[in-house]
């Protein structure tokens, strides 16, 4: 939170940032084309010598005019510098080319979000994902994930998995070591990554994945291909259907990057049904990223902007939450937080919750 408590920019810096925001869509598209066309790579490969405009045109085989417009825009954006008639790459240009987080975010925004964000104001007014119509005709994006065009699906899962891939190896010991978990219910299993990681880490645990039927089909195919069907079961259900009770008999319930897909009232409803399904001495483990507990301002910024995807495209009523807002939902559902572990992977917090006695 301390990142956002004071206004530290001068008036001149603030006005420059305001223009950067005003031209935001231009900045984004130019950076992406400079990356994808090979222009930035050719400049980087030239090293300290740099490249002239004519040399770049020859190497990338694009029209002289178009390359010139992109590079002149790239100067103002800060991706390249220009001296002695040659272009050289900047540190920011390097990150646009090579930083995994930057590339995952850029692909996610371009392929999944860009057109839909045009409908953001509409979504704010209605509380519905009005931008989703740019991708398909579904109530939320989750019903349509398995039907998205391959390149859009790739960018969506690339974004989703990038963060879980850094967190899962770190969080597995926190969940399984000394906790004697034999039977776990995973709610919102996505493509089965947690179940696969769990069975590899803990030879005794059995996972039941509960999710939408469309989502389960993707996870089931992967589980079967890995020969893990004897250790992973599937329970299809619409989580938002409050008439559907959760299956009982589990000593732990796991949810990762899942509850941020729901409104506060929906989170409370889901957790109340977890409360009813969980064994008396069991725990609910929740892995989430909260923007107010990040070590770096950049991480907080990324999470805050990701919330807008939920508003305009995903479901219209959820977000990447402030931790206190989220914890209040946990308390309302009849749980207390037994243990909190921050700074897992890039940005995650693990909440270990138990029933209030």
From TrEMBL:
Residues 175-335 form the O-methyltransferase C-terminal domain. One of its GO terms (molecular function) is O-methyltransferase activity. InterPro entries: BVU_1015-like_N (IPR049480), COMT-like (IPR016461), COMT_C (IPR001077), SAM-dependent_MTases_sf (IPR029063), WH-like_DNA-bd_sf (IPR036388), WH_DNA-bd_sf (IPR036390). GO terms for biological process: methylation. Residues 16-87 form the BVU-1015-like N-terminal dimerisation-like domain. Keywords: Methyltransferase, S-adenosyl-L-methionine, Transferase. The keyword Glycosyltransferase does not apply. PROSITE patterns: SAM_OMT_II. PANTHER family: O-METHYLTRANSFERASE CICE (PTHR43712:SF2), PUTATIVE (AFU_ORTHOLOGUE AFUA_4G14580)-RELATED (PTHR43712). This is O-methyltransferase. It comes from Parafilimonas terrae.
């Amino acid at each position: 939170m301390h990142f956002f408590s004071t206004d530290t920019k001068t008036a001149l810096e603030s006005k420059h940032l305001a223009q950067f925001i005003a031209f935001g869509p231009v900045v984004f598209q130019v950076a992406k084309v400079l990356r994808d066309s090979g222009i930035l790579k050719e400049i980087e490969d030239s090293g300290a010598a740099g490249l002239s405009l004519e040399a770049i045109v020859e190497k990338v085989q694009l029209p002289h005019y178009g390359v010139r417009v992109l590079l002149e825009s790239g100067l103002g954006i800060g991706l390249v510098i220009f001296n002695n008639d040659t272009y050289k790459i900047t540190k920011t240009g390097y990150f646009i080319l090579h930083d995994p987080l930057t590339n995952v975010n850029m692909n996610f925004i371009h392929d999944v979000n860009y057109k839909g964000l045009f409908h953001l104001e509409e979504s704010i007014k209605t509380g519905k994902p009005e931008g989703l119509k740019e991708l398909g005709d579904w109530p939320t994006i989750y019903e349509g994930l398995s039907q998205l065009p391959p390149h859009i699906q790739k960018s969506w899962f690339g974004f989703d998995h990038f963060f879980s891939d850094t967190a899962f190896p770190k969080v597995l010991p926190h969940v399984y070591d000394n906790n004697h978990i034999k039977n776990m219910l995973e709610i919102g299993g996505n493509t089965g990554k947690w179940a696969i990681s769990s069975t590899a880490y803990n030879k005794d645990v059995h996972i039941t994945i509960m999710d939408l039927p469309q989502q389960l089909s993707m996870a089931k195919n992967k589980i079967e291909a890995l020969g893990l069907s004897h250790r992973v079961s599937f329970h299809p259900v619409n989580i938002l259907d409050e008439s559907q009770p959760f299956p009982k008999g589990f000593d732990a319930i796991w949810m990762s990057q899942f509850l941020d897909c729901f409104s506060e009232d929906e989170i409370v409803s889901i957790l109340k049904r977890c409360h009813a399904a969980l064994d008396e001495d069991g725990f609910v483990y929740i892995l989430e990223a909260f923007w107010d507990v990040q070590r770096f301002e950049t991480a907080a910024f990324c999470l805050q902007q990701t919330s807008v995807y939920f508003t305009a495209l995903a479901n219209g009523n959820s977000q990447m939450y402030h931790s206190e807002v989220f914890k209040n939902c946990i308390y309302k559902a009849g749980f207390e937080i037994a243990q909190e572990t921050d700074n897992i992977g890039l940005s995650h917090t693990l909440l270990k919750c138990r029933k209030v006695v």
